[in-house]
């Protein structure tokens, strides 16, 4: 019988626990604050469970080796912070193009460039969406608690394996370094999804053909007996480079479509008192904790305020945000940047609803009082 | 029915041939040499993984019938390191070029060599960026021309074999597309070496390097390698004036040194044993 | 020695016209000069003189010339 494990841990630690629970076997990375604990803990724990850890020569190599590990059949992860996230973008694009499942954790710190090491920020939200060149699919999850760092890391692996794409876990430094007492769920209490492999010795296996009724091509590991080709060039159903216009269009449509057609499976969010909210706050990650407090206090003062907290940042929960703005005619987006997540809110909101923004980039977290002040200004 | 010689039929995706390389490009000779070396060593095809970067040389991966991974520019060794560590059973061979490996991929190159990870790297050195149309590379000899060095490059070139040796590669050799049998032997020894191996394969680029520097045709380039390659062992006995204008080929370094993945696996075994004893 | 010669003769020298890019390397380095280029493609002009040494196959960048055991054996 498994008994409940209750532990005091920080977000970065919970992330590793979640990764191991999801089946992490391979970690390649490069040290960078405030994500370094993730590498440190992986270096300690992975050998104990027969997994592999390697500290690479740079962030680019960390991402590349992570993809290599995944192609060899292991569930793979890397972690970084803003400057490293920038460097990883090249091979993140490769993983998106070649459809290699992997998890990339970005514990955000204030930028641009070296910025404010290592004050909290949510400045990488748009980079998570558009960081690498070309149109590409993006799945980004963001936790607001240590326990959720565990849960969402498990989920990040499941989504990566299911949709064969890199998945980002975007934590702000507030959550990465927050210490909370959490109950670690026992195996069986959470779902673990493993990539679907081809039938052994399947003579008709085409490395990049999607079978009828399936979402992505089945993925053989190198060494499984299928000699197939993987490339970052536009490729056909065998994985071989092609320059035909229809091949390119079909591939790009597949890459985007596998996510867009499954948004209901991928998108999760949490709502607090949104039913009758005249003013809706949209906040995520650590900021959503302050926003929740602000909502509580405002409600006590009789203000009809609600909170929408996207847990899946990307794809953007546009259907739900649109629905909510049909009722709530005022929306206040609160985030630790100068206006990133507010952009898609503008795009999808009902025309007669008004959007306000409160952003902060001085390296200090946003306090509930600041949000209350903004609510009262906008209300 | 697939076309080609027995080696081609066995180890190439012959329906993807002819390849994209220019007439007389030495890359095809080197690519074939890799397949012959694999055949001579009787490696299990399913356990061979060929990883390449970007550039002319890196297209080889697409033609060879193994687990093949055509990665991003300069990154082949970083991807390959992940593949090898994740599955040590795989025989990982990296195909790269002079620009790919020593310019944009230079950091990965020296660190893969430092780790002495069991990867065999075949560096196709055509002394130029071919795929982008003939720009000078870190292997273009000083004063020679490229499209970005119209007056001759002021950059000194790397001695790639010295670089590999200095960084820790346990097997280092150089040969040319002309000396293909010798090259195949070195590739075999590189694969057999338990550690990082670097085989620099000099390849003629008649289209860009040759034309820019008035080196003549593909045959002229091959004749140059035939006449000017000097084996390092023979060179030791020659007076300086006999060595003038020649370049060295041969085995430059061969040592036995702890290999990265084996060392990591030993560490795993050790910490797991300690853990179980403490419990 | 005679046996070895006989064995060698059993190998056929073959070319793949569609793959040949006409660089002339095989022609230049053939020790017995039995190859030539015709319309920028390799052509074997004297099968009898060919010693089946395999140097053309070794250095052909296009994998377009090779020796193969006689399939009729």
Question: TL;DR?
Answer:
The complex is a heterotrimer of chains A (379), B (279) and C (73). Chain B is α/β, with parallel strands linked by helices.
Q: What is the total tally of β strands of chain C?
A: 4
Terminal-residue CA separation of chain C: 21 Å
CATH class identity of chain C: Alpha Beta
Calculate the mean pLDDT score of chain C and round it. Answer: 90
- Give the count of helical stretches of chain A: 13
Q: Could you please say which CATH topology of the largest domain in chain A applies here?
A: Rossmann fold
Give the uncertain stretches of chain A in residue-range form. Answer: none
Radius of gyration of chain C: 12 Å
Computed Rg of chain A: 21 Å
Query: Rough shape of chain C?
Result: globular
Topology order of chain C in helix (H) and strand (E) letters: HEHEEHE
Query: What portion of the residues of chain C fall into strands of 2 or more residues?
Result: 15-25%
Number of helices of chain C: 3
The domain count of chain A comes to: 2
Major beta-sheet overview of chain A: 8 strands, mixed
CATH architecture of chain C: 2-Layer Sandwich
CATH domain topology of chain C: Alpha-Beta Plaits
The CATH architecture of the largest domain in chain A can be given as: 3-Layer(aba) Sandwich
Textual characterization of the structure:
Chain A is of the alpha/beta class and 379 residues long. In chain A, 38% of the residues lie in helices and 22% in strands. Chain A has helices at 11-22, 36-45, 59-71, 82-98, 125-130, 146-163, 173-176, 245-260, 263-266, 285-300, 318-327, 342-348, 368-378; strands at 5-10, 24-29, 52-55, 75-80, 102-110, 116-120, 139-141, 166-172, 179-184, 229-231, 269-272, 279-282, 305-310, 312-314, 330-335, 354-359. Chain B has 279 residues and is α/β, with parallel strands linked by helices. Chain B has 13 helices and eight strands. Chain B has helices spanning 6-11, 27-40, 60-63, 76-86, 98-104, 106-115, 160-167, 180-192, 206-212, 218-228, 232-236, 240-243, 260-278, and strands at 48-52, 67-70, 91-97, 119-125, 171-176, 197-202, 229-231, 247-254. The longest helix of chain B has 19 residues, at 260-278. Chain B is globular. Chain C has a single domain (2-69), classed as Alpha-Beta Plaits. In chain C, strand 2 (35-38) and strand 3 form a beta hairpin. The mean pLDDT of chain C is 90. Chains in contact: A-B, B-C. The A-B interface holds A 25-26, 28, 47-48, 50, 52, 54, 56-58, 60-61, 64-74, 76, 90-91, 94, 221-233, 240-241 and B 13, 16, 45-47, 49, 51, 61-62, 65-72, 75, 78-87, 89-90, 107-108, 110-111, 264, 267-268, 271-272, 275. Strand 10 of chain A pairs parallel with strand 2 of chain B.
